[in-house]
Each structure stands twice: as C-alpha cells, then as structure tokens.
Amino acid sequence: MYVTLVHVSVKPEYLQPFIEECRKNHEASTREPGNRRFDILQLGDDPCRFVLYEAYATQKDAAAHKKTAHYAAWRDAVPDWMAEPRKGVVYNGLFPK
Fold first, then answer.
1. In angstroms, rounded to a whole number, what is the distance separating the alpha carbons of residues 8 and 5?
2. What is the pTM of this model?
3. Does 97 have pLDDT greater than 90?
4. Which residue among 47, 54, 58, 74 has the highest number of C-beta atoms inside a 10 angstrom radius?
5. Is the dihedral angle over the CA atoms 90, 24, 42, 36 positive or is it negative?
6. What is the 3-state secondary structure (H, E, C) of 33-54?
C-alpha cells in the first residue's frame, strides 16, 4: 500500500468550512479505483489540527487521485484557511495488504 499522512493546521475561523470541504473530498475519494482508506482525523485536544490518512493500493493510484475534480476542488478551497502549509509524509503500508 502507498500511504500519505497529510498534516494540516487550520485557522479557527475556518474550521467548519474546512471540515465540510474534507467531507466532500473524503466521500468522492473513497470511490476511487485503488483507494483503500481516506480518513479525516481531528486532534482530540486541538480541533484545528488534522491528519488526512490517504491509503491507495499503488503509487499510481495515489497519483491519479491528484488528477480528480474533487481533489482539485479541495486543494483550491482550503489553502487560505490553513495556519501553515500542509505537510504530506509518505509511508509504505505493510499491513493490511
């Protein structure tokens, strides 16, 4: 599996719009070929911090995600809402396969 953890810090005044854009991206992403998981995680003691857990069967599937209309809509909507640039960290998923 090809996994990316995207760390995001959101400005408090944009919290609800950010969550809504993530919901739309999540729902469409989970229907993509090769998608294994697309979780939106909110930090328990800081509601403005998130991790997006994106797991795809292959790197090619993950790259295809970046070409979708729903990803482009999310990408274009959220940058000004972030307190700092998002950071994606790539992992090789070992289990489950």
1. 10
2. 0.94
3. no
4. 54
5. negative
6. CCEEEEEEEECCCCCCEEEEEE
